[in-house]
Protein 1
Amino acid sequence: MRFRLPCLALLALLLAFAQPAAADDLADEADLRFRLGAEAFQRGDYRTALEQFLSSNRLVPNRNVAYNIARCYEELKQFPEAFRYYSVALQAETDTSARGRIERALVAIRQHIAVVEIETSPPGATVFIQRKDLGPRGNTPTALGVKPGRYLVLAELLGHHPAQVEVSELGAGQSRRIKLTLEPIRGTVEIAASAAGASVRVDAASSQPVCQAPCELRLSEGRHTVYLERAGSAPAQLEVNVDANQRQTLHPELVLLTGTLVVSSDEPGALIEVDGTARGFTPQVLPLAVGPHRVRVSLAGYKSESREVLIERDTERRVELALTQSDAVNAASRSTESVEDAPSSV
């Protein structure tokens, strides 16, 4: 079944195309090629019309020209090519009636060809049929019209290993859906222990953490941004170029966020312990990492005092303690007891 292009329809397409966005030499030549193609089509010289329409479309791609190319291929019985250009025209067409006309043409052509519907994960891969040197056939997802037979479908995507699949014998009017998975070409990035405890994100600071340092990342080839975040430290980000099948190590140095703790007591010389570690004697000014800490102050003969403190960035926190004398003594039993319980002589 053929859908011949009426003269009025051809004229309408001609007028639509004859209004280029920019009146330059390229658009003028494309318009001329279109007119010559339209004249050739009207007199039934479909091969000459095809040559002119293809030249026009190379200069200025246009959905109307793609439709006319498909019509020429259909008249020449080159149905796979007609299917391809009808599909291109359909993707760009917005008019409902025009879309219906193209869809009917595609249905009519399907009885002469086999259709291979190709998807890839991830999408956007360039598709080749049989051999690369025959040229690309579009980007996934796509549906390709082919002559009945067996085919090798190849897919390539930058940063991924190529994939291919052999499609078994297809007959006219048959369809086959295939899906290819393209594995990323990866390299290894090691985050060293200098950033121990930091959560690691890749390519987006708001993404979910992928690991906690120290750890290894398997990243696709190319440039990436690594984000590091650790409580009490300033966040950091590093740019890294990942090479395929290569390993590299990052040694990020996270800068601690600090504040100041001033500890004093009414009895000088008391021992100061922060989180169980001795840090000096009162009075003392201590730089501490941002976050919660436990401070303990002790002095012989006095009760020890403990406080929970929260250190904030670039701020000073003061702890002033009044030590109370202990009522414990060393008794004759050589153990520490309260004054009331310790034995004494009269």
Protein 2
Amino acid sequence: MRGVFLDRDGVINEEIEYLHDPDKLVLLPGVAATIGALAETGAAVVVVTNQSGIGRGKYSEVDLAAVTARLDDMLAAAGTALAGSYFCPHLPTAGCRCRKPLPGMLENAARDLGIELARSVIVGDKATDLAAGRAVGCHTVLVRTGYGAAEEAAVRAQGLGDAVFDSLADARAYLLAWLA
């Protein structure tokens, strides 16, 4: 099975530092329809998100679960769903394997869901997102939403972005063609 790995904040929803209130979750335009179209290809659409706010004591795993449930509800209302959602609660200094740019979350999802990483793609707004995908052989797509516009030069300099788009919705046709 192919996978489409999506960073959450800045890719799926508006970037809000340490988002922990489900009422502040705002989907970016066209995201629900894009996720639905990607899921219809048979690919597993999976969120992989660093959530160091938990490790910093800014919010709890219960708060994150509430935001995730709100996202699931919003997608369900649009007639679609994610195959899974994975997060890393650790600080950048923790040295864990799950925190992007390391690929632990992608590897866990691949194991859990039967995803072939080398036939999959990751979409993110940071070089760290794309580096995690590249580490396991994924195709990589940068979006300019969230931190993407500010990260674009670094992504290009590191040779990480196989493609760059203004948003996930703008990448839809490209991703569908890539998955075909």
Protein 3
Amino acid sequence: MGKVIVIDRNPQIRKFIQNHLSELGFEVECFSHLDDSFSVLKTEYEKIGLILFEVSDVYYDNLDYFKEFPETDWHIPVIAMSSSNKKQVVIQTIQAGADDFILKPFNEEYFDEKVLLKLDKKTEKKEKVKTGININFNKYVQGELIKASKGKYPVGFLMIQLNHIKKEYIDEWSYYKIAQPVFKKLMDEFWDTDLGVQYGAHSLIGIFPFCDSEGILILEKKLKSAYKDYIKGNENMHGYNIDFTSVIYPQNGKNRSEILQNLIEKSIR
């Protein structure tokens, strides 16, 4: 099933994750600091199915994982956990290479939806766990840019964010349940060659090969129309709006780092 590595300074968080995932049949090994985990990560990586680690607005040391293991033939899904929902924290995790982001404290349902999806396993305890494709988002982006460079064609990047107009506090699980069907509806409008990845509870990042600036504008118009159709008569969507931010390769960046940095910076202006 794959070992789960947990790296978090909070012993209560480590205990919750270890007890919960152990009950579901997963082997879990916990560490308080990234440095303590290196020997296991380097010697047992073929056995590891997921890494969960803590980040915050003042503690980014665990992102050094991506410096220690920059580019390899294997990929372990990585989820960042944080008690801070500041955009800078999310930006750091996306740019570093984390596959997803969970805001703490998390309830059991939200934790399972995120974690078990990455482990891609069904358990007896849960009646349904939605299966999904485990994808290294950053490696996918880099691969698409290499192909686009060789083929000399543009790639459009679109960040779609669902926000509450009054910025009222809504727990992440509730936000996720509201956002997920919205993003699924929007992704129904994507072509087969396009990719959409939901990051955290609030954001969807789309990658569109052969899509230039004009194509992105047409796509945004189509997605806005699909969103309007979805929210008609839907009381759950009262108070929400949707924002679109786009960049184009190669006009707005020559590589993955530049493209994602420009996309994220534009999204927070």
